[in-house]
Design brief:
Two copies of one chain form a homodimer. By secondary structure, the first copy, chain A, is an alpha+beta fold. Chain A folds into four domains: 157 residues, Jelly Rolls (Sandwich), CATH 2.60.120.260; 101 residues, Jelly Rolls, CATH 2.60.120.260; 331 residues, Glycosyltransferase; 86 residues, Maltose phosphorylase, domain 3 (Sandwich), CATH 2.60.420. Chain A has 15 helices and 34 strands. Chain A has a seven-stranded antiparallel β-sheet. In chain A, strand 22 and strand 23 form a beta hairpin. In chain A, helix 7 packs antiparallel against helix 8 and helix 7 packs parallel to helix 9. The first copy, chain A, is globular and about 80 Å long. At the A-B interface, strand 2 and strand 5 of A face strand 2 and strand 5 of B. Chains A, B: InterPro entries: 6-hairpin_glycosidase_sf, 6hp_glycosidase-like_sf, Bac_rhamnosid6H, Rhamnosid-like_N_bacteroidetes. Chains A, B: Keywords: Signal. Chains A, B: This is Alpha-L-rhamnosidase. Chains A, B: It holds the Pfam family Bac_rhamnosid6H.
Chain lengths: 724, 724
């Protein structure tokens, strides 16, 4: 026995030794964190054209740092040769000694080796890739944009440079030839479903809204081709008013398949050749962000299944280099829109990289001179998005990276408070809230104060996560003061609701849904106040109705929080079902059931101004996952979570909710629940006419016909119960 | 008479009409002010290599704004077609209406025309060129990096964007094909003066220190060529230790003249071919900044003439895209070094564009996180340089452009004060002062407080120039408080001098020259204090001597201000003459007469570390112009000025001092002065044994054997006097 043990030990230590000496670390391209994201977002956001004209954003576009220093220390158990590649001009220091030229191979001795590499690149992001057996680039390299290594007259370097180093940024550029600057989304061939001659041209239908690069096959001749895109047939055929078009100059004596260089969002294309230009057929290269297929929902309600599928496809189309608003128009990163994409993503692909990329791109660089996207509310959604991301992902590293940028943005906000400590729209501040007729932005709007309060709470939470006790105390105090102020200034005892605003120090009479519904799911109200808001605002026909899926998202969430899932289910069927009945293949920027015909297509005073594939239209993914499958984390990264299924009018539903470490699978009928989770400790809550039973555990009666069961990971549970 | 008058009037108005309708405005490329300068300084400062290795600065490199909006309104008397060119992707709006595509020709109607053009460019600076009869780009176009033109749901644009527009930046890119991004300094052919075989290679001598691109003529064969540059013969031949080298890979079966891509500073080149590589001879392309030949000095003292000529050549070599420190090493823009180049320039080429470019490049972009070049004193020289520039040039437009950037830099400085309101080196602050052995940077150094005080005074002056009364009052108050503090804390009554520093709230015992000499020409001292400083510091051998021409500049200036021109003249001859005797063809970074042989070449612990062509070595230009020819402005842009010639040991001297509007010419002997000025009103001051006489005016006796005469522009004065 002793001998055998010894032999085993030897084997283990040999394996360990082999690992540390020979295991090839997987290298990846690194950069200053956020810089690739800013650069890529510039590339993406400056790509849009409208009717052939370049159409950039109206806020400041930032740049990456053009000169960056990377370094890391290694303890090498044996000598090795490393390969160095950089995007940009670079130099290399080993243990403080500069090497000649720009070496692509460097021989290192065993022992302590400190590698410093400086990279300069104006055009694309300074990036670095080092590959060796032991020395490789990874997120633990340190990086700075000013090393301040000055020397004295004897050549001695300063010992007090005060330089701040941060961990390097990375993504998935894991081989030398996969350079960050060459990043492109993948494409695949898609065929049209219909093609018909109309007038001088051909109308091609791809069967559903889509995104990518058109290919004209066997194109030849000499002349121009007008290519008119449409999210609707009407738009494609209205060559004078459609939002997007390309004009292709053709000079092809020999026929050739030609793919356009501009990507567009469209279902229809009307192609009108001039001169003797001819082509055979039209296909497209569908461009997409590869996202793992994880979240899932299916039920006995076919309409709801279709709503979920179309929502999923809407999310697929608007999830690109970053989460964008719509595929036809803007194609920019809007913080308020992205905030909803993040939420949907947690119940769909759980693609944390795209969440982080988008948050970093939105923040941009110092100095902070305007709100994010110039919109006050969008600044606050940015704060909120960070804590949400932490709650779903448990990614503390990202909080550490982003926290300094949160602080400087909050500084900016704090400095814009008026003498009463409230925020009103100053010159340059867009107070957006929602697209709604006649919505007042005057004075101190309650909605902005509410989001500000919540953002201060978020600061305190993030400070706490990072153990920054002083910050935590300061932000907690500010948040508490602001919350008291918010309640004092805007709660109206008579109306039992929050008013819309305060003008010249006085409450206005106006009540709108926004503040009231957010206060619900922020949990700011006592039961009596909740009941007031529910009756006097959420369920009242006298308060102006919401016309955008954007704010419907929050309205329905508030109702779900109040236990109105049955009502919400029907509203979802009506509202999103209404778009489906009108032939929607993706969900829209705005939907007003009272409109008809081509009136549905117009917005911003333009006949086809409305985006028919808008990320904020996809919210059923989130609502179904969180309030019907009923799954949500109760501690960061699903270490603990709750499952509280709600069938509403469905006979059964099944689904999968992704987490950072595997999925939570659920099948629910009116008398049976099956659940299996790959991770965390769950708390299954069932409302049942009798105590539910399961071979896998015993339910606790928590009163009011509610029962709960602890769900251990990697175990299949089957439960009998009786739905109410 | 009446008829004639009428006819004349008609002619005038016809000419006026023709001017306004047909006169072709001269268009120029425009950009966001400072952005071209920042971009070009990145290009220049990242060009240096040391022994083949890329060697960038250690402070933050900024970027231009990548997305910029230009606009201007015109009142067109007739329709016209304009040509548009941009560096970058762009769009064009005319009277608020977007034009399709990226038009290079646009037809405009008569009447009011507002042109908005947005340009995006990541790699080089977004720049715009518009050419028409009436509509052309010039410095009066407005430009911003965020137009914040958001719209409401009806498509109406916001009326309160709060956007700040500034005047466009320009230089001399005055034709469509002269693009800013293609900027290069011109070159011309220069031949070597000697060539000799030494060992395996050939040593080529260009006769004096120079700058440019080496050409190897009739180069052929296969192999490498080692090219070892040297400011001295010793450096070129020491292939293992010289500071700069190139290795050229040759693969030329057919002989070819080959010019190297890297520019270098050198007098000697040692060229060592390997393999079967051969070449005929070596020449160079001398690269230079074209500067008008204006300032001039000549005298009966041949050594001083040579000092002036070599100073001029030193300035020529170090005046490049920007004023740099030296031609061999650094080749970066250092604020303290540039401050002296500006001063010399006012007595040489009066090249205001290069002064402005350098000031803008040094400032970089927000956020301000470190001192300029990381050096505290260099931040202060930057402030001082702006008022000096105004005093010499009278350029108020530049003050308007730079003032906001001065304010934010001063904010940064103010926030770094300690509890006593003083500045000490915090982490990341380099307290430089001078290259001097054992110079203490501990605690609150008096020199930094003095420069800080002067910078606050500069802020007040600039605020006043712009009519910013509130700022003026605030900065005047801060300056006055700081000046009192400076006098209280650092003047030592016993020593009758300023001490070097304050440590732990106590004056130190140490007295150095820096603070004392600056206080002289800042005019902070009463006559008794002046006398104390002169005796106990400036003329004392017990106070540590200055070894750099950099601080010699100020030391000699202080002595000149104290009327010690005779002494200074001799010191110049000794110090700069000393370098000449050692064969200097340009003046050095540091010169210690006590050293000998190759010890003169070393610095920073490296055998050839010292720069032998350093801009701060050229200060005799300034001293001779200001304190011997004795010309200086007394109001901005030489509207008024003073001429107070001082011959010292010269029998005669003559010279020319440039101003923004022509020159001031002077010829001085011991009994005759000739003067003619193109501009301004001068005050000629002569010390004479008897009252000077002139046919052009009468001298006023101002006592102490001093006489003065008012000098009108464009008039030749000949004066008889008797020099003392």
């Amino acid at each position: 026995m002793f001998l055998v043990m010894k032999k085993l030990l030897f084997s283990f230590s040999l394996i360990f030794l082999l690992n540390s000496v020979f295991a090839q670390q997987s290298p990846t391209w690194i950069w200053y964190p956020g810089d690739f994201e800013i650069w890529l977002s510039n590339e993406m956001q400056n790509r849009r054209t409208e009717r052939e004209t370049y159409f950039p954003p109206f806020w400041r576009m930032d740049s990456h740092y053009v000169l960056v220093e990377f370094h890391k220390e290694f303890e090498l158990s044996s000598p090795e040769e490393i390969t160095i590649a950089a995007e940009g001009k670079y130099n290399v220091k080993v243990n403080g000694k500069m090497l000649p030229g720009m070496p692509s191979k460097v021989a290192l001795n065993a022992g302590k080796q400190k590698i410093n590499i400086k990279v300069y690149n104006q055009q694309t992001v300074p990036a670095l890739f080092v590959e060796g057996k032991q020395v490789t680039t990874d997120k633990d390299w340190k990086v700075t944009f000013e090393d301040k290594e000055w020397i004295d007259e004897t050549g001695k370097a300063s010992s007090q440079s005060g330089t701040i180093y941060v961990n390097a940024g990375t993504w998935n550029f894991n081989s030398l030839d996969k350079k960050p600057s060459a990043f492109k989304l993948p494409t695949r061939l898609e065929q049209a479903v219909n093609s018909s001659k109309i007038g001088e041209g051909t109308l091609i239908d791809f069967g559903k809204n889509t995104f990518g690069f058109l290919t004209l096959h066997i194109l030849k001749g000499n002349g121009k081709v007008g290519i008119y895109y449409g999210e609707s047939k009407e738009e494609a055929l209205d060559t004078n008013h459609g939002e997007t078009l390309d004009v292709l100059n053709v000079n092809l004596p020999q026929a050739k398949d030609s793919t356009l260089v501009n990507s567009k969002g469209f279902q229809y294309v009307y192609v009108v050749p001039n001169g003797n230009v001819a082509f055979d057929k039209v296909s497209m290269q569908y461009e997409y962000l590869p996202v793992e297929d994880r979240g899932f929902f299916k039920s006995s309600d076919e309409q709801m299944n279709r709503i979920w599928e179309v929502s999923k496809y809407t999310m697929e189309l608007t999830s690109r280099e970053f989460y964008i608003d719509g595929i036809k128009r803007d194609r920019w990163i809007w913080s308020g829109d992205a905030y909803q994409s993040y939420a949907m993503n947690y119940y769909l692909g759980f693609d944390s990289e795209t969440v982080k990329r988008t948050i970093l791109a939105l923040r941009g660089k110092e100095p902070t001179m305007t709100h994010i996207n110039t919109i006050m509310d969008y600044t606050f959604y940015w704060f909120l998005s960070i804590y949400d991301y932490y709650q779903y992902s448990g990614d503390k590293e990202f909080i550490a990276l982003i926290y300094p940028r949160m602080k400087t943005l909050m500084d900016f906000v704090m400095k814009r408070r008026n003498k009463d400590g409230l925020l009103e729209g100053l010159a340059g501040d867009w107070v957006f809230i929602d697209w709604a007729e006649g919505l007042s932005k005057k004075g101190e709007v309650s909605f902005e104060q509410l989001l500000f309060t919540r953002s201060l709470e978020t600061m305190a939470l993030c400070a706490d996560i990072l153990g920054q006790q002083e910050d935590k105390a300061a932000f907690t105090k500010e948040a508490s003061l602001m919350r008291d102020k918010f309640m004092d200034y805007y709660w109206n005892q008579n109306k039992q609701a929050f008013v819309h605003s305060r003008v010249d120090g006085q409450q206005t009479d106006d009540v709108t849904r926004y503040t009231n519904m957010f206060a619900i799911f922020f949990d700011y109200l006592n039961p009596q106040q909740q009941a007031g808001v529910k009756k006097n605002v959420l369920l009242s026909d006298e308060v102006q109705k919401i016309m955008t899926p954007y704010m419907r998202f929050y309205e329905l969430e508030a109702l779900c929080v109040l236990g109105e899932q049955d009502e919400v289910f029907q509203q979802m069927k009506d509202y999103w079902g209404g778009m489906l009945q009108l032939g929607a293949t993706t969900f829209w920027e705005e939907y007003n059931p009272a409109k008809s015909g081509i009136d549905h297509l117009s917005m911003y005073g333009r006949p086809y101004g409305k985006s028919l594939c808008h990320s904020w239209g996809a919210s059923p993914i989130y609502l179904l996952g969180k309030y019907y499958l009923g799954v949500k984390p109760t501690s960061p990264g699903y270490q603990t979570y709750v499952v509280e299924p709600h069938l509403a009018s469905m006979n059964w539903m099944e689904g999968k909710v992704p987490t950072p470490n595997g999925d939570i699978n659920l099948h629910v009928t009116k008398n049976k629940v099956k659940i299996k989770a790959d991770t965390g400790v769950g708390n299954l809550k069932l409302k049942s006419k009798k105590r539910p039973t399961s071979k896998q555990g015993t339910f606790l009666d928590i009163g009011d016909q509610m029962y709960e069961l602890k769900i251990e990971p990697n175990r299949s549970y089957e439960i009998d119960y009786l739905a109410i």
